[in-house]
Amino acid sequence: MFGMMIGSMHAGGQAGAGEPALWQHFGKGTVDPLVTGSKLPDALTSYKFSAEMCPPGGSYSIARRVSLAGCINNSWIPLSSDFNSDSDPEMDYGFMMLVNDTFHATPRVIYVDTIIQPLCPGTDYTFSAAIINLVKPEACAGLKSFPIITLHIEDIPGNILFADTSGSIGFASSFFGYKFGVFRLSFKMPGGFNRLVAKIKVISDADNCGHDFAIDDIKVAASGPRADIAFLNEFPSTILKSVCFQQNKTIELTGDVEPFYARQALQWQQSTDGGANWSDIPGANEKVYSRNFSIPDTFMFRLSVAEADKIANKYCRVVSDVLTVQVNGIPSNLKVETNAPVCAGQQLTFLASGGASYEWFGPNGFYDNIPFPHIYKSALKDSGMYYADIFTLGGCKARDSVYVKIIGTDVSAGNDTAICLGQPVTLQASKGLVYKWTSTPGSTLWQTQQIIVSPAKNTTYTVSVTDKEGCTDSASVSIKLRNHSLLQAGIQAGEYVCYGLDSMLFTSTSKGDIEKWNWNFDNGNFSQEKKPPVQYYYAGAGDVSYSIILHISDSAGCTDSISHKLKVAPGCYIAVPTGFTPNGDGLNDFLYPLNAYKATHLTFRVYNREGLLLFETHDWNRKWDGNFNGIQQPSGAYPWMLNYVDAAGKAVLLKGTTMLIR
Q1: 3-state SS string over 100-116?
Q2: pTM score, two decimals?
Q3: Residue 298 burial by CB count (10 A; 0-12/13-18/19+): exposed, middle or buried?
Q4: Which of 40, 115, 244, 512 would staple 394 via disulfide (CB 3.0–4.6 Å)?
């Protein structure tokens, strides 16, 4: 007799698992969620069976989901699918066991079953079950009592060989959708046993409010290292590969297994019935498996691994995930359709079915590679035979065709185009008798054959044309903006440079989403900087001006440019004359600061000897004529004050006295 051996029980994932020696997933239902499953044999559970979706206390039901109407006074969570439907799409509409537990003084058997498949002594196994608490937290306010699950591996007489107990199965969270917890008992198969029994019990107490639960996916399977397989020379994420049987293609699969077994043995397996049954592939015992495919069918492959002396028993192995090779035959059940005949200007549509991809060919160079291509504005020249090459996912091809006839008038508004914001574009309709242009967004625009537009947003222009026979057709053209910010070049700089060597700083005041700046400074220098360096000019006696040009462009390729005229001044030394003669002879008639070409923030003031302000200006070209309030001022000395900022950015203050001579 063996004493009880404690295994390792936990919730969560595991590395590698084999083909189940015991698997209770409770079967599958139908699309109708009200259809419940069949009763379990009495020997498998100590609970009573109920055919109701919401079983009464002390009983269970087999169902796809918790009733939409709510169970037990709406105290159960709205669990919408079983564990396998959530984790395995092949088990969609899968059943689970819903248990309405009541108080029982001793542990109650939820499920018990004999493992009849032969297990290998010394091999690691995992006994697992997916469990979720069905009770809403608000239904048991303040209660801290939850079901406690025990997993047992026993011999046939009922002696416990391995056991462990879960923590409390608390309330399920709806934060990421209600999820089952998977609880596992790991054990090593002892020698001397032909059969084992897997048993799941629940421990309850007198306060039974929080003890209703669902259980699913009860399984005993070998456990061990993780086995990974992939298609050779393909992305690791590729799990399905399709080929055409005509290609007679060879496909290679490769496997990798974590170090685990002392004497590792490999065995590739295949299934041709969707994974329901697996068979060993004779001689396929290496990490790389190569296969030639020339018969249409669907083949599934996986790699199993075990100790070399146990590889013959499929219940002693762990297996990889599955890769699928789909070998296509010639496409069948093809269909090619069209809505022709249609009037010119109307939409011509096609539809092909029966394949995984398509290629269309037709008049005027027509080509498309989707199952439902369109000619949105058909024309008379679109009449003719259209062919569709229909391919399977693996590349097998068949061809079908359809004849199209276009009738009526043939109106065109030109080709769709993209423009830069602010750019005008000319639109012209086909020749007719009456025209009516509309825009979207917008309204009726013109009633002429040709229009010039400059939209501020993406706009579709539609023209309706009526010919002399009274036939009417319409066509549209879309004008899309390449950019959505008006591109506008601008230069900030002074107006003058002086004879001899002088400098000037140019600043871009351009607007828009600018990507490139191209400067031509007309002094032999160029720049592509937003803030170009100071430029120097050596102006001679014959030089009159320089033309500075800035070209800008944005990421859409839109451009704008501006030029700036830089005049040559005879001198830039700022001075105020010591005297002036306002007698109207055209010589020295005014008082003002000379040569203030490059001064900024200028203020020039003139006073009399009593300190009365006679004249003030911020424009150096505005001059004092010797008058104050229309009265000539007498000859004499007049104090002045000059403030400005020079070209180097330095503030300058000058004071002095000028003689007014009459």
Answers
A1: ECCCCCCCEEEEEEEEC
A2: 0.57
A3: middle
A4: 244
